[in-house]
UniProtKB/TrEMBL annotation, chain A:
Membrane topology: Single-pass type I membrane protein
One GO BP: protein N-linked glycosylation via asparagine
Bilayer-crossing regions: 423-442
The keyword Transmembrane appears for this protein: yes
Localization (cell): Endoplasmic reticulum membrane
Keyword Lyase: no
GO cellular component terms, A-Z: oligosaccharyltransferase complex
Pathway: Protein modification; protein glycosylation
Name this polypeptide is given: Dolichyl-diphosphooligosaccharide--protein glycosyltransferase subunit 1
Keywords, alphabetical: Endoplasmic reticulum, Membrane, Signal, Transmembrane, Transmembrane helix
Protein family per UniProt: Belongs to the OST1 family.
From TrEMBL, chain B:
Transmembrane parts of this sequence: 20-42, 54-77
Pfam entry (one): Ost5
Oligomer and partners: Component of the oligosaccharyltransferase (OST) complex.
Domain of life from the UniProt record: Eukaryota
Keywords associated with the record: Membrane, Transmembrane, Transmembrane helix
Signal peptide residues on this chain, from the entry's feature table: none
Any single GO BP term: protein N-linked glycosylation
Membrane topology (UniProt): Multi-pass membrane protein
Protein name: Dolichyl-diphosphooligosaccharide-protein glycosyltransferase subunit TMEM258
Function statement: Subunit of the oligosaccharyl transferase (OST) complex that catalyzes the initial transfer of a defined glycan (Glc(3)Man(9)GlcNAc(2) in eukaryotes) from the lipid carrier dolichol-pyrophosphate to an asparagine residue within an Asn-X-Ser/Thr consensus motif in nascent polypeptide chains, the first step in protein N-glycosylation. N-glycosylation occurs cotranslationally and the complex associates with the Sec61 complex at the channel-forming translocon complex that mediates protein translocation across the endoplasmic reticulum (ER). All subunits are required for a maximal enzyme activity.
Entry GO CC: oligosaccharyltransferase complex
C-alpha cells in the first residue's frame, strides 16, 4: 500500500510539467468572420530533467468557438500532436507533444494557430442598408498561459481602412489605424486574465453555411461525381428596414458593403460538367474560369445576402477517377477531400460528407486527417442496383477552410462485379423477349376458324414442297460436279457412288413430296393437290437424260466441259423453271 | 494495404470510345430485335421454333444490355 502511494506520488512529480514562457508574441487577425490567432510561444524548460510535453491554455470563450488548432515548432512545417486535457482554473488546456525531449534549461519555440468562429458580435445588432457593420471582439490583453510569462505582446488586426471605434486600454497599449497593440507586459503570472473589448468596423460578410452536404459518388466506370448542397445564412448585423435595389446598385461602397454579393468557388483542375442551381433551377449569373491548376466558379446568387437573409444552392461536378481512385488486385482506395473550398473564410456549422461506393464492396475502412463523427452506414439504391449502394456518412461541426484536407476510404471490390450492371440490363431485355415469346404462344381466338387453320397448314406444306424441290435440284448439281470430277480422275467407283447417292436423294425427296401432297389434299382440296402432284414428274426429262449423260461422260476424252454437259445442265434448268411454275400456281 | 503502394485505377472502358461502342452494340441489338419481331409476325402456330426464338432473343438482349449501359455512361449517368 505504501509502495503504491509512493509510486503515485512519483508519477505525479513526473507528470507535472514545469516550463517558463520566456516570450509570447500573439497576433489576432479579426478582419474576417473567422478570428485567426497565431501565437509564438518561447518556452524554457525549468524542470528537473528533459521534457517532451508542453501545455497551452485557451480561454473558455476561445474554446467554445474553436474550429481548428495546429501546433508546430517555429520554422518547421511538421505538425505536432495536440491533445485536449481537463480544464484548469476556467482555462482549457491543450497538451502539445514535442516529439523530441527538450533538455533542462533549453528553449523551444512553438507556433500555435487557432481558428475561432462566431465570436465577433455585431454592434449595433441591426443596421440599415446604407450603414456599415461594426463588431465587438472580446479577448484578454494577457495571453492565457499555464506558466508564468516573462514578456508578452498581443497585436489585434482590424479591418483595413475601417474605423476603430473603441478599444479597452491596458497600459501599455496603443491604437493605430488598423491595429491595436497590447503590451509588452512583463512577468504575468499563470492563468491571469485581463478582459478587453475592441469595437471596430468589419464589413466582410458574416456568411455562415449552416449545412454543407457533400456527396461523393464513386463509379468504377471511371467517374467520381461530387455534389454539394449548401445553405447560407448571413449572421452579421441584421438588415433594418426595407431593401432598395436602386440604393444597392448606386451604393458608392461597391463591394465593401456588408452584403454578400458574389464569391468564387475553387474546384479541382479536372472538374467538368459543372452545374450550379437552386430550387428554382439553373442560376445563369455564374461563370466558370479555367485556371492553370484549378477551375474557378464565380457565383452570384439570385439576390445579395444582407444580414439575416439566407439562400441555398447545389453545386456539382464530375472528376475522372484515375486521379482519386487507386487499386491493387481487389483492394481499392479513394483519396479525396473531406471538405472543399466554398469561398474564402467560410464558416460551416455542420458538414456532412457522404461517400457512395459501388455495390458489393466489402471491408470498408475510413482514415480521416481529423476526428469526424462517423454515422451509421446507409444504403442508397440508384441506377441498375439491386440491394443499393453503401453510403458512408461522416459529420463534423464547426468547419473552416483549414479543414479542406484529403481523406482515404479503402475497400475491397471484385472486378467481375463490373459485369453485373450490363448483365442486369440484358436480363431485363431478355425478360421482355420472353414475355413476347410466351404471349405469342397463347391462342386468344374465341371461335375456331378451320378454314384459316387449313390455310396456315397448307402454307407450311407448300414451304416443305419447295424445300424438297430445292434438295432435288441440289442433287442434280452434285451429280454434274461428280461427273466433272470423273473426267479428270477417271475413277469409276466414285462416279457410281455419286449416281447412287443422287438416286437415293431423289427417291427420298419424292417420297417426302408425295407425303406432303397427300397432306395438302386434306387442307387445300384435290385441285391444288393435283397440281402439286406434278412436282413428282416435273424433272422427268432431266432424270431420263441422266443415263445418256453419264454414258457420254464416260466416253468423253476431253477434260473440260463438252456439249453433253451443256445439254444436261439446260435440262436441269428447265426442270427448275417448271417446278417454280408449279409452286407459283399453288 | 497502403495507398502509396497502389496503382492509379483505370476504367475498363475509355470515355472517348463510349459513343462508338453504344452505336455499334445498340445497332446490332436493335437489328436482332427487328428480325425477332419479323419472325414473330410472320410465323404461324404451326411453324414456331422455340429454340430459334430464344437464341435470337438472348443474343439481342446481351447486345442491347451492354449497349444501353454504355449509352447511360455516354449521357452522363455513371452507373
Amino acid at each position: 500500500m505504501r509502495l503504491l502511494i509512493t509510486l503515485a506520488l512519483l508519477g505525479a512529480v513526473f507528470a507535472e510539467d514545469s516550463w517558463k514562457a520566456v516570450n509570447i508574441d500573439r497576433t489576432i487577425d479579426a478582419t474576417s468572420q473567422i478570428v485567426k490567432i497565431s501565437t509564438l510561444y518561447s518556452f524554457e524548460n525549468s524542470g528537473a530533467g528533459p521534457q517532451s510535453k508542453v501545455s497551452i491554455a485557451l480561454t473558455k470563450e476561445e474554446t467554445a468557438g474553436l474550429a481548428h488548432i495546429t501546433a508546430s515548432i517555429d520554422g518547421n512545417k511538421g505538425k505536432l500532436k495536440v491533445v485536449e486535457k481537463p480544464s484548469e482554473q476556467d482555462f482549457s488546456i491543450y497538451e502539445v507533444d514535442l516529439r523530441t525531449p527538450v533538455a533542462k534549461g533549453a528553449k523551444v519555440s512553438i507556433r500555435v494557430n487557432l481558428r475561432i468562429t462566431q465570436v465577433l458580435e455585431p454592434l449595433p445588432a441591426k443596421i440599415t442598408q446604407s450603414e456599415s457593420q461594426f463588431v465587438v471582439f472580446h479577448t484578454s490583453a494577457y495571453v492565457p498561459s499555464r506558466y508564468e510569462v516573462v514578456t508578452q505582446k498581443t497585436t489585434i488586426r482590424t479591418t483595413q481602412g475601417g474605423k476603430l471605434l473603441s478599444a479597452t486600454t491596458v497600459s501599455p497599449s496603443k491604437q493605430e489605424t488598423e491595429r491595436v497593440v497590447y503590451g509588452p507586459y512583463a512577468n504575468i503570472p499563470a492563468f491571469e486574465k485581463k478582459p478587453v473589448k475592441v469595437h471596430y468596423e468589419n464589413n466582410s460578410p458574416f456568411v455562415v453555411a449552416t449545412i454543407v452536404e457533400r456527396y461523393i459518388e464513386v463509379s468504377h466506370w471511371g467517374n467520381i461525381a461530387v455534389e454539394e448542397y449548401i445553405e447560407l445564412v448571413h449572421k452579421g448585423a441584421q438588415l433594418d428596414g426595407s431593401f432598395s435595389r436602386i440604393d444597392y446598385q448606386m451604393d458608392r461602397r461597391g463591394r465593401r458593403q456588408p452584403a454578400f454579393q458574389q464569391f468564387t468557388t475553387v474546384l479541382p483542375a479536372q472538374a467538368k460538367d459543372i452545374y450550379y442551381r437552386d430550387e428554382i433551377g439553373n442560376i445563369s449569373t455564374s461563370a466558370v474560369r479555367i485556371r492553370a491548376d484549378s477551375v474557378d466558379v464565380e457565383i452570384r446568387p439570385r439576390f445579395p445576402l444582407f444580414g439575416g437573409w439566407k439562400t441555398s444552392y447545389v453545386i456539382g461536378y464530375n472528376l475522372p477517377s484515375e486521379e482519386y481512385l487507386y487499386n491493387k488486385g481487389n483492394q481499392y482506395a479513394l483519396k479525396t477531400k473531406l471538405f472543399d473550398h466554398i469561398f474564402s473564410d467560410v464558416v460551416v456549422e455542420k458538414l456532412r460528407t457522404k461517400v457512395l461506393l459501388p455495390e458489393h464492396v466489402k471491408r470498408v475502412k475510413v482514415a480521416t486527417p481529423f476526428v469526424v463523427d462517423r454515422r451509421p452506414d446507409e444504403l442508397k439504391p440508384t441506377y441498375l442496383d439491386t440491394t443499393g449502394r453503401l453510403v458512408i456518412v461522416m459529420e463534423k461541426n464547426n468547419v473552416v477552410p483549414d479543414h479542406s484536407q484529403f481523406f482515404t476510404v479503402s475497400y475491397e471490390f471484385n472486378y467481375t462485379d463490373m459485369l453485373r450492371e450490363p448483365l442486369l440490363a440484358s436480363a431485363f431485355f431478355f425478360s421482355l423477349f420472353l414475355v413476347i415469346i410466351v404471349y405469342a404462344r397463347f391462342d386468344f381466338t374465341i371461335s375456331s376458324d378451320p378454314a384459316r387453320d387449313a390455310e396456315e397448314r397448307s402454307q407450311l406444306h407448300i414451304g416443305k414442297l419447295a424445300q424438297s424441290v430445292d434438295s432435288k435440284q441440289a442433287a442434280y448439281d452434285t451429280l454434274v460436279e461428280a461427273a466433272q470430277q470423273y473426267k479428270s480422275t477417271k475413277n469409276e467407283t466414285e462416279l457410281q457412288d455419286a449416281r447412287k447417292t443422287f438416286n437415293a436423294t431423289r427417291t427420298e425427296e419424292n417420297a417426302k413430296l408425295s407425303e406432303k401432297i397427300s397432306a395438302l389434299k386434306v387442307d387445300s382440296g384435290t385441285a391444288v393437290a393435283e397440281r402439286a402432284s406434278d412436282l413428282l414428274k416435273y424433272d422427268k426429262t432431266a432424270f431420263d437424260a441422266v443415263d445418256s449423260y453419264l454414258r457420254a461422260v464416260e466416253k468423253s476424252t476431253t477434260k473440260t466441259a463438252g456439249p453433253e454437259e451443256q445439254q444436261f445442265v439446260n435440262k436441269v434448268k428447265d426442270a427448275r423453271n417448271a417446278a417454280d411454275k408449279i409452286l407459283g400456281s399453288i | 494495404m497502403d495507398i502509396s503502394k497502389m496503382d492509379k485505377y483505370i476504367a475498363p472502358v475509355q470515355f472517348s470510345s463510349l459513343p462508338a461502342l453504344t452505336i455499334l452494340l445498340c445497332g446490332i441489338g436493335l437489328f436482332l430485335l427487328a428480325s425477332f419481331t419479323m419472325l414473330q409476325v410472320t410465323s404461324t402456330k404451326y411453324n414456331r421454333n422455340l429454340v430459334k426464338e430464344i437464341l435470337m432473343a438472348a443474343t439481342s438482349s446481351v447486345f442491347l444490355g451492354f449497349g444501353s449501359v454504355f449509352l447511360l455512361l455516354w449521357v452522363g449517368i455513371y452507373v
